[in-house]
Write a structure and sequence with these properties.
By secondary structure, the chain is α+β, with helices and mostly antiparallel strands. The protein folds into 2 domains: about 80 residues, 2-Layer Sandwich (Nucleotidyltransferase, domain 5), CATH 3.30.420.40; about 50 residues, no CATH class. The protein is about 20% helix and about 25% strand. The longest helix has 19 residues. It is flat, with a radius of gyration of 21 Å. The N and C termini lie far apart (about 50 Å).
Length: about 140
Amino acid sequence: MNDHQNFKNTTIALDIGTTKVCAIAGQLNEYGKLEVVGLGVVKSEGVSRGVVSNIDKTVKAIREAIEIAERNAKCKFKIVHVGIAGQHIKSLHHHGLLVRHDSHTEINQSDIDKLIKDMYKLVLPPGDKILHVVPQEYTVDDEQ
């Protein structure tokens, strides 16, 4: 185990592609720069044109890539960050509105949570689903 590594600040990311599955572990060094401490790259056999075509082969490749990165980093990861990309992924901008009955009470987290929850009720084309809602800005009484 490397002395300079603080494993609480070490994270692992996964990229699943058509040609390879890559797991990369990194942490911020004392200068605030990302330092790679583990890397695992394996051939991807279960993905075709950015779409999973064989789940078993894809899972096997993911496990192998993570295991290699963990061996190189000399630690185990409980959480893996996964990037999702491809033609089937879309980003939409939508505006929500919350009408409050008492304008004199302070806006609180439950008001914000309600706005975010309402975004999941958008009508989408068949087969589409919302993965995440990421608020970009809030406007209150015409002020951002």
